[in-house]
Amino acid sequence: MLKRTNLFYFLWGTGSKGFYILKFLFVLMYAEDVVSRLWELYPSGYYHINKDPFYLLISTVLSQRTRDEVTIPTTQKLFSVFGTVQQMAEADVDEIQELIKEVGFYRVKSQRIIDISRIILQDYGGVVPDSMDELLKLPGVGRKTANCVLGYGFEQDVIAVDTHVHRISNRMGLVETSDPDETEKELEKVLSKEEWKDINGLMVLFGKNICRPVGPKCDVCIMDDICPKLI
Ligand code: SF4
Asked: What EC number(s) does its UniProt record assign (predicted)?
């Protein structure tokens, strides 16, 4: 019987335009299988401590270049002292630095958090905007951060592509891309819309535990029989 991974290598190896539609249809079915296996592996999904858009926004800014094990308690500590947009906007930068000093680039992030809070307070009446265009105007906010806020905070159908989603999607052959923004666009073509906002949380869990950046655990992986392992 023809194994799916053999078909994968054949379609990817041809380079022929004639196979484009076949390849696309193959990836559509393959993507559906990948997502269903992720749900099988993590039936409870993922958990967010707080889905308030402002909390998510600041938490995602803090998470840049920082592990979740540090980001989560640091965000909680910060919000236990400065719990509102107004309090954060009026905070002294030294106080913020002291509270978040465990995260990477904490000096830059401290000023950024104050700047973001002031803009939200002055330009948006203290309410985090719910559009990509407006979120991208905030200092230090890129598409990943904006999509985390839109997806988790506002329940919009968006794909937040972080390092795990980008790596796993390419490694598994769901996309062939060189940067996260491109991955977002390509994933939108192959994933059904109702899966968009969940794929980040599922792949982050999967990327931390199984398909790790270094030393992926292919021998115990639920995707082993279908994954081309493009490492
Ligand atoms: S089989 Fe290996 S490369 Fe493929 S998803 Fe699993 S851990 Fe990652």
From this structure: 4.2.99.18
Q: ipTM > 0.90?
A: yes
Domains of the chain: 13-44+158-220 (1.10.1670.10), 53-153 (1.10.340.30)
> Sign of the CA dihedral 53, 200, 48, 74?
negative
Reference 174, options 209, 222, 221, 223; nearest CA is: 223
pLDDT digits (tens, 9 = 90+) for 59-75: 999 999 899 899 999 99
8 pLDDT above the threshold of 80: no
Distance (Å, whole) CA 150 – CA 8: 34
Rounded Cα gap, residues 60 and 109, in angstroms = 11
* Residue 73 CA to ligand 1 centre (angstroms): 30
Structure confidence at residue 46 as a pLDDT band (50, 70, 90): confident
Instruction: Tell me which amino acid residue 105 is.
Output: F
Contact residues of ligand 1, CB 6 A cut-off: 171-172, 210-211, 216-218, 221, 223-224, 227, 229
